[in-house]
From TrEMBL:
PROSITE patterns: BP_PHYTASE, PROKAR_LIPOPROTEIN
Keyword list, A-Z: Signal
Pfam families: Phytase
Signal peptide region: 1-23
Top-level taxon in the UniProt lineage: Bacteria
Protein name (database record): Phytase
Domain named BPP: residues: 20-347
Amino acid sequence: MIKQFIFICGTALIFGACTSKLAPVAENAVKPTVVTEQVPNDTDDPAIWVNPNDSTEVIIVGTDKHEKTGGLYAYDMDGKIINKVTPLDRPNNVDIAYGLEIDGKLVDIAVLTERGTNKIRVFSMPELKPLDNGGIEVFVGETERSPMGIALYTKKDSTGNKIYAVVGRKSGGADNYLFQYELSVDAGVVKGKKVREFGKFQGGKEIEAIAVDNELGYIYYSDEGFGIHKYYADPAKGNEELALFGQKDFKSDHEGIALYKSTDSTGYIVISNQQNNSFNIYPREGAAGNAHLHEILAEVPVSAVECDGADAISMPIGTKFPKGMLVAMSNGMVFHYYDWRIFQEAVDKGRM
């Protein structure tokens, strides 16, 4: 029997059988400042929520992806579980959006994919109250459904916020792998209307990790084992592929994507090099004279093992995270909180 080794805070534990041997955590791997409490089954993807009215209140939500008995968990900044939604049927990825108008009030939302029901689910933040009357069906009429990845795009205009969910699935064709849904509210219930299909797919594995840059208006997604694709987030701007990068920078799978925003237009795209237990970092703003040229700046080994999902924030959070943090899923049913300063040091050294 082939054994699978799970590393939790540097300790190897025999966990069960699998089909591949995991890479060990590097000796120089970045250590997390906080490791969350465990969920019952299998963590997958986190998202960060900051209270718009009190920036000292920060909550991490993350999925526990198990059939029938999965859930969405909320953690405080010490990694303690403070709330949860259970059971959910194979929840995969989750994202946060701010200011959806419901009954005259602006409500922040967490939206996740629920593979077992072929739906996306919408919950209020921070209460985690359901807002979707049981869920919004996606990929209706498609042979292959099984929603996995999700990212939320907020378009601000004179009428307020328009919030879109960009959804990926377990498998799809070479084109139009992703569907984009505009979220609206009818009698207090969040609905979804498909507004476009887009996205090339190489066809090696699947598309799960998706991230949206609201300020610059771009969507990034991981074509596992192939590269990172970049498109416009606004459906009105069309379906032209803007960039394909990172093809030679990964050991195997391209996975979780996080955006670290130094300003409204600068910062970093941080992508999990899953089988290497590291993160590859790229310039958010591209290169001088070419906003769609993203060349690797640094690779940072981490203690998180086989990271599927990640999120980042640049806002100072207490004394532990004065320059913000990166949150990463790790095997062992946990999430890691990393001090961003360590990643910034790696980028700065690479630029010297």
